[in-house]
């Protein structure tokens, strides 16, 4: 998919946050000079094409009583696609990335309780047959990550 100037502007704008109103897309659509229907259609098209992988909020799970944990696995290359599907089927999994390293699968677990990390990681191990290494967050850093489209 080729992104046009409006798609790129939309991606850049949405990274700055949504207004806390009953109709947040209306204000953004008006800012951009497009309709709400066009805005939503663009998001759907970009998601369906893989230009964006997700659109949604980031919650501070720890502030709500939950937990985050960075995890890694050493997945045999021949099994990578199968294991990716198995891991990604868990609703607690976010940000799953392949790396060129012995530990070639990295993902984040986000759970409603701190105990949920062990439960989810243990379930992934049972499902895949591969150990899940856990790297719990010791300190939080906010880097304000933005991707210019």
**CATH class categorisation of the largest domain:** Alpha Beta
Query: Gap between N and C termini, in Å?
Result: 13 Å
How many individual helices?
5
Q: CATH fold name of the largest domain, please?
A: Alpha-Beta Plaits
Based on helices, strands and strand pairing, what is the structural class?
alpha+beta
The radius of gyration over CA amounts to 18 Å
Low-confidence stretches: none
| Total beta-strand segments | 4
Please give the share of residues in helix: 25-40%
- The appropriate CATH architecture of the largest domain is 2-Layer Sandwich
What coarse outline follows from CA principal-axis ratios? globular
Order of helices and strands: HHHEHEEHE
- Mean of the pLDDT scores? 91
**Order of strands in the sheet with most strands:** 2-3-1-4
